[in-house]
Specification:
Distance between the termini: 43 Å
Order of helices and strands: HHEEHHHHHHHHHHHH
Number of helices: 14
Oligomer: single chain
Strand order of the largest sheet: 1-2
Largest sheet: 2 strands, antiparallel
Helix content: over 70%
Shape: flat
């Protein structure tokens, strides 16, 4: 009992001593609880109900999950598309972001190039998709079709956004280009904060070229930025929605561009089946969380 009392008294003294820090964290804690934690808990609760937003929710247990995993073929199509999208866009965007940041960090006009690469990430996916649709227009006036017809590679225009075989590749290309912004900026900031004296010491110890500097000096100093970029890449890859819908519509032809978030949106805001949509959201949250933890563990063990 004395041990518990001493522990409680020590905790109170610690809080009193550091109350300024807790007070500064309080606004964030309140906003996080209201807009992130509470909605997530409510969504998990709704996933066990039949709720259409107009009538009271009815508890149905695991019926939504059973329907999703056993009877909903479109859900598995969305899972397949999302996994293909994530496996390609996540790593490719991540590696390209770092490579471009590493190259530009060695240039004098890095700020102008940084703005050019970062601009797509702060622009609406719908707006960027509209720009790219000029390239992938399905008629002969689209830039790519016009070029291929001009050189005699094809005779008829390719239906880039209508053919189920080409819809997902188009979405992936646009998304890779857009995914480079935030990660690129984080990597560039990390590269600029690496202690320059390390390179001088490395040159004395036998580091001979840029690639050896990158492997032995730069990457070990950028663990936080690499981890942040990886988590951001995972989250963005599994949350693909706006580009897919802007390019292929909702639903897309043969559900070729249908993602998990698009499936969630369909049931939540078109069919108003919020219970089922919450179940889809819960599964997406679990998958994203597990993949994020795996990525975190891999990068942490590589230290």
């Amino acid at each position: 009992m004395k041990t518990k009392e001493n522990f409680g008294a020590g905790a109170v003294r610690f809080i009193r001593k550091n109350w300024i820090g807790y007070a500064m964290q309080l606004p964030f804690a309140i906003l996080f609880t209201v807009f992130v934690l509470a909605p997530a808990v409510i969504a998990i609760g709704l996933s066990f109900t039949d709720y259409n937003m107009f009538q009271p929710a009815n508890f149905v247990g695991l019926k939504n999950y059973e329907l999703m995993l056993v009877d909903d073929a479109v859900f598995w199509t969305a899972v397949k598309n999302t996994l293909i999208f994530a496996v390609i866009v996540g790593p490719v965007g991540y590696l390209m972001s770092f490579f471009v940041a590493w190259v530009l960090n060695q240039l004098k006009m890095r700020n102008a190039f940084a703005l050019a690469f970062y601009a797509p990430s702060i622009t609406s996916g719908v707006a960027m998709s509209s720009v790219w649709l000029y390239f992938f227009s399905s008629d002969q006036y689209g830039l790519i079709n016009n070029l291929l017809i001009s050189v005699g590679f094809i005779d008829d225009p390719i239906l880039w956004t209508q053919n189920p075989k080409t819809i997902l590749p188009v979405i992936i290309i646009i998304s890779v280009w857009m995914s480079m912004g935030t990660g690129f900026l984080v990597f560039l900031a990390g590269l600029q904060n690496v202690d320059k004296t390390l390179y001088e010491a490395g040159a004395i110890d036998g580091v001979k070229n840029r690639f050896q500097e990158l492997k032995y000096l730069t990457l070990p100093q950028m663990k936080p930025q690499l981890l942040f970029g990886a988590i951001t890449a995972v989250t963005n890859a599994f949350g693909a929605f706006d580009v897919a819908v802007s390019v292929a519509g909702l639903p897309s032809p043969s559900y070729a561009g249908h993602t998990i978030v698009a499936h969630l949106y369909d049931y939540a805001f078109i069919r108003f089946q919020m219970g089922y949509a919450s179940a889809v959201a819960t599964v997406l949250f679990l998958v994203t969380f597990i993949v994020g933890r795996v990525v975190t563990r891999v990068l942490s063990e590589s230290e």
